[in-house]
Amino acid sequence: MTVLGSGLTAVDVVVALAARGYRGRISLLSRGGVLSYVWQCPTGRRPTHVTVERVAELRDTRGGSSRSPISPDCCARRWRRPARTSTPSRPTSAPRVRPTGSAVRLRQQLVEVGDARIGRRVLQETAHSVGPYAWRLLCEPDRAWLRRHLRTAASVVSPMVPVNAAVLLRLLDSGQLTVSSGVRAVEPVNGRFRIRHVAGERTTSALVNAVNAAPQAVPAWARDLAHSLTHAGLATPHPAGVLVPTDPRLYVVGDLAGGGPFLTSSIAGVAAQAARVAGVLGGR
After folding, report:
1. pTM of the model
2. pLDDT tens-digit profile of 99-112?
3. Which domain covers residue 21, as residue numbers?
4. Which of 26, 146, 176, 256 to pair with 75, CA 20 to 30 A apart?
């Protein structure tokens, strides 16, 4: 069995196969061969230094305009100082952001599920809560730099649950599962699928496509909706490929909203956006 992709959808496919007693070999194939990180146990603490309010303060000190650009470097310098003064009872550390695709790193992350350090937890939460606001204040070269690291960033801030990670590790250790990178193309040939990758070619009779739509792309099922909104003059296409409302009565939340970061919206993030819209519509 070959699964195209290595993100959360691909992980779900592998876990589902294992749950149904599938005994054959499973290959996860993708361009980067990067697995998502593993969720750590929540601590109940909320970020106090990396917040929308702190980003707004930083913006104001650099010009006082909503259009005044900031940079990832200046944010890091601003927030690294308070992190250094954290007390021993509140340990923190900068998370080690590395592409993950091996059993060794997966095993280490399972060990770190209960780690008291908060660095990765803060990064994961603020990427979705502060990221959309900060993204609009970045200059285009900084946005382009972040886009180049899309897969690594997404693997860190949208992690897999530990129970799924444990299943993957068991399958990797037994040799039933392999994770490979370098995929270049997939095409149907005589009832099978031919996969072209950096090491050559291979064929498979069973292929599960677990590759999600490109970031900020309008999925096929929403194209008619997007077309009707733009045709009616209620929205306009964003340069990134999604929508920007042009009618004050229309609100777009989630991944269809233009101008946001390249990360897939979290459920909590979408819920927060929807709550703000509901408050506006309710006159609060």
Report:
1. 0.76
2. 555 788 899 999 99
3. 2-212
4. 256
